[in-house]
Write the structure tokens for this entry.
Amino acid sequence: ISGGAPRPDELKGWLSDAGGPAVPADLGLGADETRSAILSALEMRNRYTVLSVCEDLGVLEQIVDEVVQSV
């Protein structure tokens, strides 16, 4: 899978080139809003996702903080 998936910088470039938002700040979101949005996404759909795995492992908050700091 990793060989076929585009790199994050490629995705950002494609989105920017198309005139779309590429990072939360492009939507006017700050770090707190971004963190809240990611955590809320866990409850949006009744599906088992990577967020569910992180929650089950007890690392969701840590992972979300790392993601928010990286964008």
